[in-house]
Amino acid sequence: MTKTQxxxxxxxxxxxxxxxxxxxxxxxxxxxLFTVLKKGAIYALVAVSMNMLxxxxxLFSLGQAGFMLVGAYAYGIFTVPVAERVNVYxxxxxxxxxxxxxxxxxxxxxxxxxxxxAALVGLPVxxxxxxxxxxxxxxxxxxxxxxFQWEKLxxxxxxxxxxxxxxxxxxxxxxxADGEVMVYLSxxxxxxxxxxxxxxxxxxxxxxxxxxxxxxxxxxxxxxAMGINLFAHKELSFVISSFxxxxxxxxxxxYQTTVQASAFKSAMTYEILLIVVIGGLGSVTGSCVGSxxxxxxxxxxxxxxxxxxxxxxxxxxxxxxxxxKVVFAVIIMAIVLFYRKGIMGDSEFSLxxxxxxxxxxxxxxxxxxxxxxx
Amino acid sequence: MRYLPYILAGISVGGQYALIAIGYTxxxxxxxLINFAHGDIFMAAGLIMIYLSGPxxxxxxxxxxxxxxxxxxxxxxxxxxxxxxxxxxxxxxxxAIGVSYLVQNVALYITGGLAKTYPTxxxxxxxxxxxxxxxxxxxxxxPILTAVLIAGLVLLIKKTKIGMAMRxxxxxxxxxxxxxxxxxxxxxxxxxxxxxxxxxxSALYFANYTAIxxxxxxxxxLKAFVAAVFGGIGSIPGAVIGAFLIGISENxxxxxxxxxxxxxxxxxxxxxIIILVVRPTGLFGEKQTDKV
Lengths: 374, 292
What we know:
Chain A has about 375 residues and is mainly alpha-helical.
């Protein structure tokens, strides 16, 4: 990338964040757009972390929901205000943890907790080959889910009851003394968190470690012959991916305002995997774009399919609750079958790529810069 | 005997897992694919039964369920797996996850998200008293029926031409293709057998656990898969032994009290991890040497 391109990209990114900040001040806070943006930012982070494992290191892991669960709980447990603990842990006499940590610290702790679990899980599991690895990580996610719901751990995890009352995205809004919101930050902050995390992952993937990951993906034996320690690199990729999945889980907790272990089923992992596939295995920007498209389509654009009228067609008997998800699943199947490379393939979103795309599309017409951030 | 009811329930569930596990193990043996959608086909068989038993009599709907489930399995293979025959294995696995997602969402749409109740099959669902333990007759029928079906299957694989073709394909995909074996026909037959057994298993399973939701198939499916891995994937006797072991163990764990129910599911996966670490090929799996 030349210096000019770097500056332009950075400028576009700043403009993109400024746009989000501005939109949030102008539009009503309950707008569908913000639901999509918030959830999309969370899924983007988790999808990139999964892509690092599945797309860049070639480890077919299906444990993402489990590590998100660990992150979500670690965040919840350490941020429920002490005064509220009696209500939240009502069956466990207020629980045994009687202190809180700042939100940012809790986010990092969520990541570390997930990474620690991953480090332990990785020791036996990462020696397995492709499909066995998939099923073993899926199994570990189920075990983690069962353990967190265990009544005996109730004083810490609140058993199978909800964790709630912890700081959410809305807590980032700056309010005045009367409780009126002066500056909305509830969408901007998740974007900042995701942005920082994705940036760190990109740095890692561009480093020699990242190249080693790709070497392992392309040919394990050749990589080993070149002096790459297979297990150490797999473990590194697994732990770091889980760290960011944990941070993503903590953000999901903030978004949902409550946490319950039973929500982190394998279906959640499958959704994230499908996002990664739609975006393109091995493309960071693809995962980001894919997750916003995925969330926008499933939460917003296809809503009409559930409520009777879609694109002007009214058919309440067919367009009833749940039809949206059927259509959505069919679209995903079509992508998986006929468009296997996803949106981006394994290349990255870049100005040059956009320019080339439009050149191809319109012959020799003038190039147009992209509006989305990378 | 305090444990008797649990062991009986375990044997019953084990037989049902065995019927599902065979579908996994056969497909894996031939395609090297974890068919993530298999558990959902099992669930779909249950739903088809519910919707057919309303307008039709039982003796008409039961065979029809078998036919429709087999058809579903066949169509899934043709539409979602066949086009990816030469694609990387990860693509096929993702396609299987996509099918699972689709089947669950279609089920969600059709049922409207409500739990449906499986119809009572007379005689099979009757309560009986076995050695002082109160149980349903299905508990006794399951192991017998499982044994009969498996005996039939083993005969089919060992004695018939298509069985020979299946063994050849699972041994070496490419060579058997060169030898003139119609590979697509063999794969279709595998899916047909797997779906048929899953349909029988679902009739037995849901006679005990009568509520069906779209995700009902996920957990039994995963457990059956673990059973298949435990026994050595590709091996039918292995899958059956694994299934009974898992069924019995998880029910014995449940006998420990309500606090332990959470762990009966987790136990299966602990077992999976132990077997994968200690003996990755399973009890009866063939040792495979990787070629460079």
